[in-house]
Design brief:
It is a single chain. The protein has 15 helices and four strands. It has about 350 residues and is an alpha+beta fold. A four-stranded mixed β-sheet has the order 1-2-4-3, sandwiched between helices. The protein is globular and about 70 Å long. A hairpin with a 3-residue loop joins strand 3 and strand 4. It has one domain.
Length: about 350
């Protein structure tokens, strides 16, 4: 590696660092979303002449990963159907189709129920199979009709914004750069060590940016529900989920091993504000170990408690920047901040 290349790498580090920091300091969701795409593309633009030294490796890695992603994209709807025990449900299907038609969301194949053992909701599918909105049976036990519609609206927001395709496309960038960095470092040519190391470090930062983009898409889906008047019921639904996950750790363990947990409306993470000793004493210790019986018995208690906690989220007990730090490694934003955004300036 000559001095000219070293100087170029220093310039690259300065430019990428400046863009990365600037993007993460932007105030609006729209600017952050666009900035995230810029962060994913920028390394390939700035490093293209060095990456082309490994034309064969670059072409092979890119082609292989594109094929794998396409296979996953085409096969995942069938795998998810089996993995999460998804089946037809007339009532959910009716609600989904009515709301999709009313608010102009195209490509919706229908509404379904999942018999996965945890409360949650998700959307899956592709442009060939259509998109399914799925609500798990345990979630149905704790939501009223308005909250159920609000959850469906969030999922329709995911479909409207084409989140499945956006995340699939963006996830290719850091993965390609990572494996290309590995290829450069394993090459016997010492001239490639510098670009290999920079590619690996950049790919790690890009993965964090991808997580942030995933968190942004959750805010967008929430905003879609809020835009059409479902902000308050969605906030209550999220509060109920947080109470359940914080106070019944066994449910988190049921959900986390999932291969497609990024699809869920809630990642299973909560906050101490949702911790409730009374819930643990009155509900979980008197209903046995059966999750279904716990949730069925908790419905009335959750209705009252969720209302109280939604109000508390208007003014979080810790600074917002602390929540941003805590969620850095998560693909979902803080439930507290999501609820706060949903109930601010409610239309």
């Amino acid at each position: 590696m000559n001095w000219r290349e070293i100087d170029y790498f220093k310039l690259y580090i300065a430019v990428f660092a400046a863009v990365f920091i600037t993007v993460n300091l932007l105030n609006t969701l729209e600017a952050q979303a666009v900035g995230s795409v810029v962060v994913m593309v920028l390394p390939f633009v700035l490093l293209h002449r060095f990456l082309l030294r490994e034309k064969v490796a670059f072409s092979a890695i890119a082609a292989l990963l594109i094929i794998l992603v396409l296979v996953q994209y085409l096969a995942s709807p069938y795998l998810i159907t089996v993995l999460y025990l998804v089946t037809a449900n007339e009532e959910i299907d009716r609600r989904v189709k009515v709301l999709a038609e009313k608010y102009g969301v195209s490509g919706v194949e229908g509404g379904y129920i999942s018999y996965a053992p945890f409360p949650n909701a998700f959307t899956y599918g592709n442009v060939f199979t259509g998109y399914r909105v799925v609500v798990t049976y345990p979630l149905l036990l704790i939501l009223d009709g308005g909250e159920l519609d609000a959850v469906i609206m969030h999922e329709l927001g995911d479909i409207k914004h084409r989140d499945v395709e956006a995340l699939m496309a963006l996830s290719l960038a850091p993965t390609v750069l990572y494996w290309l960095g590995r290829a450069c470092l394993s090459d016997r040519d010492d001239d490639n060590d510098g670009v290999g190391a920079i590619a690996l470090i950049t790919s790690i930062l890009m993965q964090y940016q991808l997580l942030k983009y995933s968190r942004i898409r959750e805010y967008y889906a929430d905003a879609f529900a809020k835009q059409h008047g479902y902000g308050k019921p969605l906030a209550k639904a999220l509060a109920k989920l947080a109470i359940i996950y914080v106070n019944i750790p066994a449910i988190i363990e049921m959900q986390r091993p999932g291969l497609f947990s990024q699809l869920f409306i809630s990642s299973g993470e909560g906050d101490d504000v949702f911790r409730d000793v009374n819930f643990t004493k009155k509900i979980t210790k008197t209903s046995g170990d059966n999750i279904t019986s716990i949730l069925a018995k908790a419905r009335a208690y959750l209705d009252e408690k969720a209302e109280e906690l939604v109000y508390k989220c208007r003014k979080p007990s810790i600074p917002e920047w602390a929540y941003y730090i805590m969620e850095l490694g998560s693909d979902h934003p803080s439930i507290v901040l999501r609820i706060k955004a949903l109930i601010e300036e409610e239309p």
